[in-house]
Structures are given as structure tokens and as C-alpha cells.
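Lab notebook, bench 4. The sequencing result for the construct came back, and we need a structural model before the next group meeting so we can plan mutations. Quick request posted to the team channel:

Model the 3D structure of this chain.
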Amino acid sequence: MKFEHYHPMMSANYTLDWLTHTPLKTVHDNIPTQRSMTEMAQVVSQAMQLIMHNQALIWGIVQRADQQFCGIASLTVIPAKQQAELKFIYHPERLTTAARAEIIDYLAAFTFAELDLKHFAVSLSGDDTTLRQKLLTQHYLSTKQPQKLIKNK
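Done. Here's the predicted structure in C-alpha cell form:
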């Protein structure tokens, strides 16, 4: 499987696409970072290399209703564990709990159906208790790492 083929992808309300489809200044301004624009350009370039080398799937998240960039979703695939792990980079006011829940549901289904992996893990921030509770009701399990939940196929 070639990760570069999984762009764009669309959940009900969001498009997940190459980071390079969003202007660098927009990405830089809409995620929490201390990096300079030059450093951010290097980060985006490295992300594209990871995708092309089938090491990760990294998307810019854009709300389709208004074309606003909301954050970044990074899905790291760990073949030895038959697992994919999702992390978000975002400002809470840009990517709501409901938005993240929608994307998590979409990418969990994608991980099981398209990537044929057995486990889907989500890393949450420590203060993300509402989303954590929602995922626990959807058969996600706590792990030894308090901010990580996992769902099995």
C-alpha cells in the first residue's frame, strides 16, 4: 500500500489533505508552535517525506463548510504491533471535541478496513476529558499511558 494515495480523504464535515495544499503561513498561524516559518517549512517537508516513504499519514484538516484550516492529524502506522496511532496538533477553538470525535471515528474505520490493522490508538491531551469519556463509551480501552486510548478491531 502506498500512503501517498490516501489524500484527500473526507469525513462528513472535514477534508483531510496534504499539508502542502494549505498555505504555510495558514498552517503556522493555526497550530500551537514556537517554530519560525523556515522551521515550519522543514516540518512540512519532513511530513511529506514520511508519507512518501510509507511511514506515516499526515493531513491538514480543513472544514469543508468554510474552507478553514483547523489543525493537523498524524496517523503513525506500526506494522509490528498491527497498530495505527493518531495524534492531533490544533488549537481547541479551531478543532472542537465534536470535530475530533468525527475524525477519530472516520480514521478508526479507515485503519481497520483499508489498512487492515488490528488496533487503533488515539493520543489525547490530559485535559481532554470529554472526548476521553466519549471514546470509552465507544469501546476504547485505557492503556498504561494515561493519555492514550486504544480500540481493537
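Residues 3-152 form a domain with the Aminopeptidase fold (CATH 3.40.630.30).
Will bring this to the meeting.
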